[in-house]
Amino acid sequence: MPMPTRSIFLTQYVCGEPLTEEHFEIRECPLPRLQQDEVLLETLALSVDPYMRGCMTGLSTFYVKQFDLASPVYSMGVARVIESRLPGFSPGDLVLGAIDWSERSVLSAAQIADRPVGGFALRQVDGTRPVTQYLGVLGTTGITAYFGIVGTARPQRGETMVMSGAAGGVGTLAGQMAKLLGARVIGLAGSAHKREVLVDQLKFDAALDYRSSSLTDELQALAPTGPDIYFDNVGGRVSQTVMWLMRKPARVIDCGQISTYDDPDGGWKIDIRPIHNNALRLESFTPAHFAEFYPAARAQLTHWVDNGKLVGLESKYLGFESTPKAMVGMLSGANVGKAVVAVVD
Amino acid sequence: MPMPTRSIFLTQYVCGEPLTEEHFEIRECPLPRLQQDEVLLETLALSVDPYMRGCMTGLSTFYVKQFDLASPVYSMGVARVIESRLPGFSPGDLVLGAIDWSERSVLSAAQIADRPVGGFALRQVDGTRPVTQYLGVLGTTGITAYFGIVGTARPQRGETMVMSGAAGGVGTLAGQMAKLLGARVIGLAGSAHKREVLVDQLKFDAALDYRSSSLTDELQALAPTGPDIYFDNVGGRVSQTVMWLMRKPARVIDCGQISTYDDPDGGWKIDIRPIHNNALRLESFTPAHFAEFYPAARAQLTHWVDNGKLVGLESKYLGFESTPKAMVGMLSGANVGKAVVAVVD
After folding, report:
1. B272 contacts in A (CB within 8 Å)?
2. Which residues of B touch A (CB under 8 A)?
3. Whole-model pTM?
4. pLDDT of A160-181, one tens digit each?
5. Distance between CA B283 and CA B153 in Å, rounded?
6. ipTM for the predicted complex
């Protein structure tokens, strides 16, 4: 017996201008009858992540899959299995994977295999912790921060790391991890509240306003010989400012370039003159390049969280309808920590 | 007794359009009377180098000094001392350093110290070899290739290196050095003649036309698992093509971005999406970052040249008046090897 559900669609590709809530639409759709090798899911929580902006531009130049305007948007999410004709999944199971932006959805084995979100297909998770943790500190965000810091930046004890987007989902975690490895961490963030959280709650060594006209002086005062590492989530002008100040040689870790994603060409352009003149090394990564270390990374993250070494801050949006707002807020820097949607509280 | 000389001036800053010979002017100027701590020089040979384009844009955003439109252009050059009131220099000495684009010039100790070309002040060279070698294979070009390959790219035996601008001054030398270190070298060059020189004379493993519509296929055929190193002298679209094909992870060495220097913002912008998605490492350098190794580099280069291991190809322009043509030709890829001007043959 088909039942209706609500789903969120992207109504058009958006390139060269900011994404807004008006670019999404909630539609009521009938759920298809469950077939062999399919599961019926009830969505509990959804993630909104920066890479998703690149799936909404309509540009095929980047190696990310564009969302199909005729299907619901999807992202990492946690769902409960309501009914299953897919071997290995039973009603009541909690599952993590690429979940439709739908209150309920039917996923086939083929769809599951076809959605390369987070580097794995749908998998079971246990119900002993808040489900949003699987989207944040124990999910792709934590994994990204982990491979960015432990696998790529590799801070040495006493090195100074400057990080843009420090109050974001990856930033809050990456900064704490760099501290765990012994680095001094200077976070860049756009509001006094964010900077307070970074220093007071997360114990960053300092937090600066990236919009400050005296940013250069402030950075030089904190790192007189120049930062050893710049961990970049943001790109654009702030990156130029930091890169001109760095030690020679030093390293820049490109984790994301979120400030550029609304550019007409989809962003990701950088001016490499400071890299050239300061003999910097720019290293980039995606979690997929460390896929063989996922289990180890998850074990380490779980250990840190359970021992109070790593705090997974969340900005939680409540209710299914808030998903577009969460996405837009995440892109515009409205949140502290990982933006997640609690579809069912 | 003041005597006249001819000098070449840049008549205007040129940004966002190609530099042409019309942007230069030869003027007859009186030579000032020699003062204490000055030398009178007769120019024998002048170098034209890609970095000089950045000194002609009028943009202060790059950390290179803009040429003063009221003074002659200057570049690396070789001159003979005609008269000297500067301790340490005697008539007849051959000197290498930042030399005015003038047939004769007076240089003061202060001017010599103020011109950071090639990382050293005026110094004597011996007269046992063609003077243009000090501008090419034994000069800044050779030094740049050496620090780019030996100090930065560090190819391992058996690795595959793709190089843009392979037939240029740095490219011809960097490719030979990578071969000396055991790498396979695939050069990119724009004419059949250039590619023939690279393969037949310089023993590159292959040379491809960067304009070819099948460049991707050709590179994949030659390097099925992707290049390990991309040594980039050119930037722009060809770099994007190569970087999407590279091993994951692999390294990109930014030596220059000559194809972008006529851009309205002075160039040096790159699209880092292939760097992000392929987890590449972009490393950059200038010879100044290796200043303490200059003597060692010169000794190694001399050894290679004298033992026939390294061929310093030159495109020689004859006569003082040909200097602007040499500069423009160098920027537009008209030459094979190092472009030099033999002012006095």
Report:
1. 254, 257, 268-270, 282, 284
2. 61-63, 248-249, 254, 257, 265, 268-273, 275-277, 279-286, 289
3. 0.93
4. 999 999 999 999 999 999 999 9
5. 8
6. 0.91
